[in-house]
Amino acid sequence: MTPQEMQKIIEDGLGPVVARLDAVETAQRVPVTTHAVGIGDTPTPVPARVRVRTHHQKVMAARESVIAMDKFKGVGIDFGCWLKIKAVASYKGITLEHAADELGREDLAQLVLEQRALASGTLADGGALVPDEFVPQVIELLAARSVIRSLNPMMLPMATDSMTLPKLTGGATAYYHSENSVVTASQQTFGQVKLSAHKLGVLVPISNDLLRTSSPQVDIIVRNDAVRAAALREDLAFIRGDGTEDTPRGIGSLIASASDTTDTDGASPTLSQVETHLEDNLIGKLEDADVPTDSDCAFVMNPRSKRYIAKLRDSGIYPYKEEIRRDELAGYRLRHTTQIPINLNVSSSNDDTEIYFGNFADAVIGDALAMELLVVPNGTYETGGVVYSGLSRDQTVIKLLMKHDFALRHDLSFARLKGVRW
Question: CB–CB of 317/391 below 8 Å?
């Protein structure tokens, strides 16, 4: 999106808000009055009393109107503005107080100043900790944007970069016995699930034109860009991460081999074949392992597979279409994401994808609450293998660092169907 297109979005979105504010201020003006004068005298005007609104008050009033139109009801809008304050201070080489004052949000300046500088840079250089007030907002927004987080896994805050969770690997055994006979002793066995925080860097290039406006609509744009990038990369790691290159291991590399099935029915399976996959190779795998198949369970797949299932019919009847419109399948929740690719090569066809089913109460996300920020005016960044220059594109690059890990409490709580060509 070009800076001009972004500016048009801002103007279109805030036009009604500004108009309402101007109308309110006009109505608050007191008419000009004059002193009593004699016949022939020139009236001496008395300046009208006007309720003067500060820049901060105007921005805050516009903020409330924008929140009313925001689908997230304003969650994280101050986080977006805080990122913009940091960017403006670095880009213009001014203090945070001056940057906040320019944007009409001096109330946020003190919050930023209270954060200690990181070893990677001082506050003036753009390095800082994200204030604790904003971390829960970011996590909440990620849950709304990320497929895996939206399925309500167990989310644990990590006070340090590592955490160990105990898990039951074997239960005690019960025996019938006769009167006065010895009861056979047995005991439970335990294992561990270990979480080790991995850093996720989120790069958000921002047009310097946007940094020059105090519009709360821009705060939402900055917020959405940062959260969207993090949510997409998280989903990819939590679903298919293999633990290499400092990434977490995802569901695909954590499930038991007994729960991993390959589809050999080609690109156009029948309704009966698809039902066999859903009932036997996915849902059935959990039932066979005594994993509860209740409301915590869900399907996750690429949109291509979802559309194929919706089009399946028998004698003119579409058994799954209405369910899929409600984001459900076979009585369970359904989520789709393009983070599951459709160009895998399991069946030597280069058009394979995967379908996952599992009990998400057994999925664990550990969030280390230390979030770090670095602002680089005119910095370079890479997108899709292409390197861009912020200097030539008049952009400032924001890098947000997050820490988390993913694990399964039981590897039999999830099943995967791979080699899917539909």
Answer: no
